[in-house]
Amino acid sequence: MKKLFLILFLFGSREGLNAQDHVKDSLLTLLLNTKDETNRVNLSFELSYYFSKNSLPDSAILWATRGLTLAQKINYKKDENDRKLYIANKSWELGDFSTAIKLTYPIYKHGKSINDTSLIIKVLTGGLFNYFRDFGDYKEALKLGFEIKNILEAKKDSSSFAMVNAAMGDLYYRMGKYDSANIYIEKSLKLLSKFKSKSGWISWVAGRSTEKMNNDSLAFYYYYESISQLNENSKDLPAAYNSLSSLYLKKNQLDSAFLYANKALDLSQKKKFNKEKIETFFILSNIYETTNTKKAYEYYKLAVSTRDILYNQEKQRQILGFKFNEELLQNELNLNEIKYRNKIRINVLLGLLLSFFVIMILIYRNFKNKQKANIVLQEQKAKVESTLSQLKSTQAQLIQSEKMASLGELTAGIAHEIQNPLNFVNNFSEVSNELIVEMTEELDKGDIEEAKAISSDIKQNLEKINQHGKRASDIVKGMLEHSRTSTGQKEATDINALCNDYLRLAYQGQKAKNKDFNATMETHFDPNLPKVEVIPQDIGRVLLNLMTNAFYAVNERNKDIERAGSPSGAGGKGGQPQVHDYIPTVSITTQRTANSQLPTAKDQLLIAIKDNGLGIPETIKDKIFQPFFTTKPTGQGTGLGLSLSYDIVKAHGGELKVETKEGEGSIFIIQLPIN
Question: Within a domain: residue 583?
């Protein structure tokens, strides 16, 4: 009770604190000291609100997610939907549409299942409509918009009609249907006038529509009215600045265009409104197009690269995959309903058969009923088979996506691995050119001895260039050998060489993603290991997946230790990080062992990939080889890697096992038969 009272006191007196950092430090201290899990959930969200208020959305999402995860762990259901909608809204502000939709869509489906129109309206108007609209899925957004409109009309909630009509007008505007957009926006403006109300967002939408109707003077009026009514915490304010800047650019008033574009850029960067920042980059590129082509090109590159990050294929795949899972669940419910109906039909038929033994006249009718039931069952069977075929097709597409992700890891590793010899070649080439110039000068002076000494240095440099060039050539040849298209045929393979190559590739792939990443690699190869008949490309994919997971695990443990030792963590003293002796290590061992479990082979090959990372909790150890199961954050894993690896090893007549201890690390063991 004392800790709870202290929490309430801190929250109630927050405005009285002299420094915002004191609030954060106090919240963190309470969080570290309290053992009550419910209080820890509430404190995590208070920290999230603090970071959100101070324009740190990344930290806000981090703490809110931690709070939600803990609440789910302790089954703390109070305000769960509100917390999810809050995280979704913050993710949307950062441009992470996949996370926003993933959190919000199940709440929407739950509201539909219990016919809770208030919850449906809250979810749709609170975000889901905006998330699909800003992601560019206008078809889904339009469907949700009409659903909002129909519910409000049924409830006769005229107070919300202005905003709904404006939202529909904005959507039609984005779809390029300007006549329809103008009709809805005019309805919205009339309703605002009727209720003597104002809306900065509706004014901005009206400005864009008016500009499309070539009424620029009225568009200026609406844009300025919008800016006067919006605050800097709204994504619509930088959007309004961008529209006003574009209109000034259209009028060739470059100073004013530049002024409002810079205002939009400052606010978007400060608040991390990524979608609006992209639009500002394009506008600045257009402004500089006639005065400074270099600047124009720089802003254009910034716009394109930021847009690619925001709308990349991985996020599209996540959203499509999520919608697919929802459809899969619905199909499963339909299938269960079909089974239930069939069971009822069978019971009815059994009852009829018993009756026909007593009343012979009903035999003919029973025969007809059975015929009809069989026809229905055949039709239902055909529908189920068709649905199953579609699901298998979608699963094949997801598996192909996982294969492409593995190819990306392989490509990143090759690029990073080959960079070192290329750097040596470039450096020695430059030095040799300089030495040739010096040698020419010495020859002109007649100093033959000095010229000979320089020529000796040039010869050594050329030998080093040749040496590193051959090294780069060997790397390319080796990688091409491993990454060539699989024929599906087994061939005699040097497992030690395969493991060594993919260990370096996995490490370099991580380095390519994170230049600060470092880990110790250890190899314990059996020198007497025979060549084994395998499909090298498939086993290489398994090795790359397991090694990449191992490097990910040790990196995550290292980051956790560094966070714990930071000034805001528990281990820091005097504002300095705590020194730790943890060394991220990944080791790989190969050996030939007597077989005890594979009846089709006398001996077996063992490949053990060990890490000293976070380990796997015992509660999920049995799930890690299941398709689509992953512990990685959204966007960092498909959940198919270990499942595909397990299937590949099984197809080779082997076994894939795991030994793990939470907090200490894991060992993945591949067992393959030696024929």
Answer: yes
